[in-house]
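The freezer alarm interrupted the setup, so I double-checked each line after restarting. Inputs confirmed:
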Amino acid sequence: MHSYSSLEALFEPASIAIIGATSDPADPGSIVAANLLNSGYKGKIFPVNAEGEEVLGIKAFSSISMIPRFTDLAVICLSPAEVLGAVEMLAELPVRAAIVTSSGFGETGREGYMLEQHLAKMAKNTGMIILGPNCLGLMNPSLALNASLSVDYTKKGNIAFFSQSGALCNTALDWANSEGVGFSKFISLGNKAVLSESTMLRYLANDPDTKVIVGYCETLEDGQDFLRVAYDTTCKKPVILLRAGGTSSGAKAASAHSGALTGATCAYNAAFRQAGVLQAVDIEDMFNLAHAFSCQPLPNGPSVAIVTNSGGPGIIAADMCEKGSLTVSCPSNSTIDEMKSFLKPYASLYNPVDMIGDATAETYAKTLKAVIEDDVFDSVLVILTPVAKVAAEVEKVAEVILAAAQSSPKPIVACFMGGHSVSGARALLRDGGIPCYDFPEAAVRSLDALTHCHRWQSKDWPIEVCFRRDIAKAQSIVANSRRIGLMELVELDAQYLASAYELPVPETVLARTSNQAAKAAKRIGYPVVLKIASPQISRKDELGLIATNLNTPQELRRAFLEITSRAARRCKDAYITGCLVQAMGPKDSHEVVISFRRDAQFGPLISFSLGGIHADMLGDVSSRLAPLALNDAQEMIREVKAYPILRGARAGTAIDLGCLEDILLMVSQMASDLPEIQEAEFSPVIAGPDGAVVANMRMTIG
Amino acid sequence: MHSYSSLEALFEPASIAIIGATSDPADPGSIVAANLLNSGYKGKIFPVNAEGEEVLGIKAFSSISMIPRFTDLAVICLSPAEVLGAVEMLAELPVRAAIVTSSGFGETGREGYMLEQHLAKMAKNTGMIILGPNCLGLMNPSLALNASLSVDYTKKGNIAFFSQSGALCNTALDWANSEGVGFSKFISLGNKAVLSESTMLRYLANDPDTKVIVGYCETLEDGQDFLRVAYDTTCKKPVILLRAGGTSSGAKAASAHSGALTGATCAYNAAFRQAGVLQAVDIEDMFNLAHAFSCQPLPNGPSVAIVTNSGGPGIIAADMCEKGSLTVSCPSNSTIDEMKSFLKPYASLYNPVDMIGDATAETYAKTLKAVIEDDVFDSVLVILTPVAKVAAEVEKVAEVILAAAQSSPKPIVACFMGGHSVSGARALLRDGGIPCYDFPEAAVRSLDALTHCHRWQSKDWPIEVCFRRDIAKAQSIVANSRRIGLMELVELDAQYLASAYELPVPETVLARTSNQAAKAAKRIGYPVVLKIASPQISRKDELGLIATNLNTPQELRRAFLEITSRAARRCKDAYITGCLVQAMGPKDSHEVVISFRRDAQFGPLISFSLGGIHADMLGDVSSRLAPLALNDAQEMIREVKAYPILRGARAGTAIDLGCLEDILLMVSQMASDLPEIQEAEFSPVIAGPDGAVVANMRMTIG
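Predicted 3D structure, all chains:
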């Protein structure tokens, strides 16, 4: 794990060796050398090539061993076969960090993959920091440093950008240069053999030059680490990520691209949400958000004032606000009175404030002042269509907005609709730090993201919960079942394990005969449930091997006979232990399902839904990654659409939600404690007004 | 209703009078005159002003009465108070069509609204065609006609555009001019006192210059007419509409904007869907789709070949395809073999075809040829990132794509990522008729829309169904209930009405005493249902006034006593007629809900869902506007998420879907026949494997 200071050699090198820089300007090494010189980098540059021939007027070394010791950074531009040898020599000097631009590693198949594994191992053994392979390098405009293959350079700004895909790096540079935006750090991650998104977040969270972190990723290998680092980072500054490879076609393509397997989208979405990462919906959205966060403050709440000189775009903006989490409230009475004094009688004073076509730059100035000073509003969206009088003074409106922003603590974004006629004004706004969009939708989306970030950063601390539990007992149950070769715990063992976590399980007795069953039922108290007991039978419900609501010994005995003979018929090879006699769940109850499975990248993913068709058919499921905090559990229950049922909607029963929250938290604890349990399903959990029981459960051993 | 030929005076005038054109270049009338002259209009121009002073070198008339008779078109640029008088004089001449640019009508409040009503009436009485008021006018580049207030003109193209909002008109012109796109017709509808979206669709459907119709709307006043016209139009050419005002904030804003009430979004969505209208998600989407349809053929199916020189954007594109309705299939074996012969070993040959960074223009040419000729693919998306070798020949790649498109019947769209470095190539593609987007998401969206349009245009004819019914009987039931002042039909009457439509209702008998009830139950056959009968009690279920599954006379008598005494207690003012004895619905059944309500704009909106929480809580409802065709009914049932339940999922019963389709069609027929029924709910409809019965129903009289 690399700390902030340890990455200094990479981002703030005092000296850089370029391995493979020749006099041929088409060689990658020579391109890097030229980029370093052209960007105005002030540190020392040491080209290395076998012939020791001069590169761009700089004396070159003919061997890596000749480079000064403790050189900070080496950029390696060799064929893949030569890379490992070079890294070994560099480590001996030592050189502290390296960028491997060469391709031909994990992205090319098995042989390349093995090469990459070697590289990672070497980094681990020597402590050398390695970016790449198969990457473009990086830029740090604070040091006028362009240690990359990209001829396009960037000006200094406060956006840090990293990307797994080199193509997206180029796109980001192109966008930034045409929009006049700059970067604080610009990083092409490539195959991420050593340095990953998590390492970058850890560094950039503490980078004083960086206000907002933006990235493109396909896979995150170290999910749980990412989750922690991203959470810590988003509490300080916004993190915007675009993730590709979320559908099966995309995942197939991503796997062909970098040789990586993409994890389940559900787990990624949960991770981003729990870590407070803003997920960009597409490339354009990523850039739009980056720009908004780079130059605007966060609003204190969701209330947006929309100021426009045309109705249609105002309506579109109001629609978009409501589709997001923003509100379009009425101005205060005093603001309305004030606006009445200078707006035309046909103007709409409410919100959107439609100043109608007669509006001039002066009208904009007065209206902006009025809404900025109105405590009702947390942020302002200014829309302009170049019609009527204002067409001649579009740039003056831009200046009016910039002046208003000077004295406003509230974020302001603009939308100037149109092409050539407003391009000058757009540039003015952009250069003055006001994001100006072509269409209202993107402007509202930015305000929505800013608002979300404020809500996230001002949230309460999560309440961590630790339950009493008997881990040793739980582990021994799992170990025993493993030893006798079971892939799934038998129900009674699963119950014992659940009890070790103090999960509420119904009283259950194994009965080998109907007589024993009747005796057990008498003790437990009617009505009871009867289920087949067999280590080989898992889906009892589907096979008709459960009888519920048995009220008398007669009913119980009949059910015992039916179930055991049906099991003998339907599951010929199963060893039938007998039947379980179980207390019924609470009356006036609802059935819910709580489960977890292990995601390859992120670990245990806990899910919650109502029973029956709610999960698989209706998709009404909420998910979070373990470990859950109390607020996670609360959100999970309230997030499903069917939640009102649990609150007693439709004259039904309102159940004990606290009890369900506890079960979710205990299950999360269990998933974290016992990695041997691959999957678990608690279904149904029968929840009533005074508590819940886990009536049935299945646990698969990995 | 205006036919195609009747709008000729508006769109193809041989002579135009400008009412209110003075020598002051700031006067709207003078702006229109200057626009007409500057656009190169060849017809006659007659300025009119009170002083009779010359306008831009053209002799003016001092009174409307002096204009030559049978002048085609008048553009009225007067104050609102003067408009009606002018229209009256114009009608006397007669002048066949008028454009009223003046604002100060319905958008300004009650007085303006009355003025607008007068204008509409005048148009109706005189047969004059009137565009506006409160509009910018129109353009017809075929005639070099700019009869509008907009100084920006458009070149000739094949996109027709109309908009309720003037601001959106300006935005569209700006967009078109900066993208080099042209319009066939360009229309600002304004307040739509006379000419509406439907009139425009009717005209543009037959306009040989128009290939694709694009519009922005907030409200559609003549919903059912729109539905018919739009359906007929979309069978001939694509119609793309952006609708604003769909959320309550947006609707509030729209209502302040044009004084119109926006209808329920649900009805609009149903209307657009049933009419085959493509709904744009935002302004940018509207323009992107317009451009794609204007220059590309429709694909024959959903299979897209993605050709790229960089992995990331290819993954994003594949993701987007799957999120839409497109497929990313493997190329055929022969194509794979062919590509192997010229692509690098690390290239990904499957789909996306990632030619990797080494690709040159020549690689693009060969790969494009291979996938175009492969029968597996219906359309092609070409992605370029300006990296490595291809950076120097980006424009050559554009030429390669244009050449490939020449000989390809399949649609091709491009995505060139980046800023300045690819702008020349983008312009080349655009001018050559290949849409080129900045980001892959928009490119895929366009292919998705083209594919959808092909599917729509090649769909089967809808199967119209007409059921036997006794309208006279139904009408007399409604009339009788109205006469005695009921707002809701009593249950037995509702049943009689349902029977008149041959809806399957359970046998039902009104029993005034428990003796009568027992006699009725004996005839019907146990088990039976017992319900309170009272004209004042409507929500029987919620009040506990229904008992089901009564198996014996004892149970029946007890239930009779309970229900009637509970009703007497809980509904003190209700007149209790007795109880209804009803046959039970089929066993092994599922409950569904079928209902309709009248939308202000579109008329009856039929809804379908499963019973219980599915409709209001889970929102799992499908809706269509009446009249339903058979395929509509089939789609409605299959569209809800819970559909698998009706097919017998989870070891449940598979029910008779045909019977449900019939009920939907009969309900649609009822809604169309009987406008007096404001709302009706058939809930539950109990559907079993061999038929269904409508067990309960409520009908509200308007």
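Quick read of the result. DSSP finds 23 helices and 27 strands in chain B.
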